[in-house]
Amino acid sequence: MNRFKRLSPFLGGCAAIAVLALLLVIYTLTRPVPMAGTKNITVDVVYEDGVTDHYQLTTEAQYLLEALKTIPDLTIEGTTTEELGLMVTKVNGRQADYKKDGAYWALLCDGEPCSYGVSQQAIKDGERYTFQYTPADSTGGGS
Fold it and tell me: In what residue span(s) does the Transcobalamin-like C-terminal domain sit (predicted)?
């Protein structure tokens, strides 16, 4: 019986390492794969009042934030973390303050919530990205 008590922490550690390895494999297989070459994308910004700004862009960028930085009339602001990248809080000077009133900027790809944030979203030719101001009482994707 004593022998099993000594093996228990060892087996727990092995199980934790196996789970971490499995998660790493899953991430590697499902992470966004950037498309090389020139891409034509559309970016829309839908504000709280329903007004929409529309941008067409031809880019060599592989990730959305990289492409957005080349649009002179578009400003994206927020807080950045190493794990998640940029968390968008302000688009073209219009703030969505989740802490204040529950509103946020939803990031959509072809009308569906993006799987990744603006910093990690790989872009593909022909895609349409939308920053949608989303009030607290609405449902939508996250940014």
Answer: 65-134
The strand pairing partners of 80, in sequence order, are 86
38 sits in which H/E element: none
Taking only the tens place, the pLDDT of each residue in 77-103 is: 999 998 889 999 999 999 998 888 899
Question: How distant, in Å, are the alpha carbons of 5, 89, 103, 121, 143 from that of 97?
Answer: 51, 7, 6, 22, 13
pLDDT digits (tens, 9 = 90+) for 38-73: 999 999 999 999 999 999 999 999 999 999 999 999
Beta bridge partners of 39: 59
Give the residue from 58, 34, 40, 42 showing the smallest Cα distance to 123: 34
**Sheet with 76-81, edge to edge strand ranges:** 76-81, 85-91, 94-95
Name the fold adopted by 39-134. Ferric Hydroxamate Uptake Protein; Chain A, domain 1 (2.170.130)
